[in-house]
Amino acid sequence: MLKIQETSYRYQRERQLFEGLNLTVKPGEIVGLYGNSGMGKTTMAKIIAGYLNPDSGKITVDDQNHHKKSPNPVQLIWQHPEQAVNPRWKMKQVLAEGGVIQKELYEQFDIKESWMQRYPSELSGGELQRFCLARALMPTTKYIIADEITTMLDALTQAQIWRVMLSLKTQRQLGILAISHDKILLDRISDRVINFEDLIKSPS
Ligand SMILES: Nc1ncnc2c1ncn2[C@@H]1O[C@H](COP(=O)(O)OP(=O)(O)OP(=O)(O)O)[C@@H](O)[C@H]1O
């Protein structure tokens, strides 16, 4: 289980963003998280994935500190996939850095071999996001923190991506924390939906 326990954070010289935050995501569970802009959802996502250190509290996977593990069993996917890849590298070089994509993921995300010869700017946003998801879904990946991953995409691509994520949740007991302002989407894909405001007021 992914556990976020009594976690607090504030940016230097800023107000306390959150304090004593508790949240769990079970294997094979999708937890939907929404909330007003600027409340700290992305900051929390960065802390869970180990990009930022919390001021206090702890984040564990199966009761272990996963941040020391390589590769990290918790992978963060952003809203803007172009920021997650080196724009000067062709896709095959991007892939070489992050490991091999499993064959079945190529098929599930409809990734074309021909993309490997292109630069990131030569793929559409949806194609690049599917590539980033497939790359993050290593066999060791147990949890995906999906921070607005389909917000910029058209309805068809959004549906395609979530169809694959829902099948991975069942097939390999992937746990997903889906952060979005799209409450309708969250209600459709999630096992439970949480308002970030409630999370920072009363621990769940
Ligand atoms: N590096 C930083 N230094 C100082 N303040 C920051 C930094 N990054 C973010 N913030 C501030 O922290 C607050 C929380 O930001 P965050 O991106 O976590 O919110 P959010 O809930 O994800 O918002 P949104 O829904 O708009 O994406 C905001 O007020 C933001 O301006």
Automatic annotation (TrEMBL):
Transmembrane segments: none
Record-annotated ABC transporter domain positions: 2-203
Pfam families, sorted: ABC_tran
Keywords attached to this entry: ATP-binding, Nucleotide-binding, Transport
SMART domains reported in the protein's UniProt record: AAA
Top-level taxon of origin: Bacteria
GO molecular function, one term: ATP hydrolysis activity
GO biological process, one term: transmembrane transport
Family: Belongs to the ABC transporter superfamily.
Protein name according to UniProt: Peptide/nickel transport system ATP-binding protein
Upper lineage: Bacteria, Pseudomonadati, Bacteroidota, Flavobacteriia, Flavobacteriales
